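Blackboard transcription, Thursday session:
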Amino acid sequence: MQENYLAKWLNGELSGEELAEFKKSEAYASYQKLKDVSATLKAPEFDVDQALEQLKEERIGNAPKVIALNPFKKFLRVAAVIAVLLAGSYFYVSTLDESVIAQLAERSEVILPDNSEIILNAGSRVSFSEKNWNEKRNVSLKGEAFFKVAKGKRFTVSTNQGTVAVLGTQFNVENREGFFEVTCYEGLVSVTYNNTETKLPAGTSFLVINGKIMDTTKPNTAQPSWVNNESSFYSIPLEYVFSELERQYDIEVNSQNVDKSLLFTGTFSNTDLNMALKSISTPSHINYKLEGDNVLFYAEKAPQ
Amino acid sequence: MNNVCEEQVFSSIFKANSKTVFNYIYYKFGNEEKSHDAVQEAFVKLWENCSKVTPEKAKSYLYTVANNLYLNVIKAEKVRLKYAEPTYEHSNESPEFLLEEKEYKEKLDKALNDLPENQRTTFLLNRIDGKKYAEIAEMEGVSIKAIEKRMHLALKTLREQIDGI
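(Written on the board underneath:)
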């Protein structure tokens, strides 16, 4: 018999001669039985799909695994970061400037910490720092506003065109595209435009249109007319009159064959659009057409 | 592309080999729970080293890892293997025969538990999983001849135990 003949037999590798000899042996029946019975043995159940699922969910998805040894420490770290962020953002927010906006066809009133008043005309915005107000009375203005400044320290209005500084007075600042006007109604106002300072006593104005300083007339009222729901103009190009009309009524103004550099002197109502349109068109000898939110001004006769 | 890091390749390796890895560890140490763990551990290791192990090498890599994991841990524990009982419910065999079969099976179970681990593993991988000697040799990292030797000794010892020689 060759070496390891039992293994060979089980694997069917014995030669006919060897097999015959093995079959004759006493032990053959026992081995045959062992072979038969062991073929019916079974291993424990093993669910391949479930094991794969488990592997993917528990192990592979989050490998490499990092275990926090002290979850409370981690919580403290997170809490500290949140606290710093909160404190930081509170500090940041509290130093942010306060802003007040008057939308188109709207007016807003602002009372400053020292009881100074700002009345915002349509389509305007002011911002100021409430926290530092007592140290620095400064507001930034976009658009037009009327200021009634309480007596006190220097009060400045910063615009992208010029700076207005006062001590305590009433004045109007209009800062629009290509148009900058300051009118003093009371006290003394200092206007800095292109690094040149101009002192405006009560009842005078300072006007810049497209970078050109214009002559002005004395205002004959104690307040700008818009505060009383009227827009007044004295020798102002129609272009700016149209813009003001757009702001006051939140409409779109277009023109056809109209010379927009034509100077307009007059007043239009800020509450009655039809009246306002007549007030503009009649003295300028132009016609208008109102359709919804659109107004078209056009010349009576096409230019020859 | 045939990379173990690809999920499809990895899954197919898992499906083809996990059951045998499970059985392999079970035959060695007779602990079902730890065999489940061994499967998980071995495949996690394979996944972590998927770029270094080619699909061809994956199989023997798995057995090596599974084996090493529990080699020292479970060695001391007493092996208590259980095998699902073949059912005779619908058989026409006589009660005497069935009783005899049952007794034989109990003897076989005991004899298997008493076998040296490497003989038992070889024997069961062949008898239950139908693994060829060459495959078992690859899993165990030994020669085919060594496996034949283990098989021969396993049969001899089992027969002696069962027949009470």
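Lecturer's comment: Chain B touches chain A through 46 residues (CB under 8 Å).
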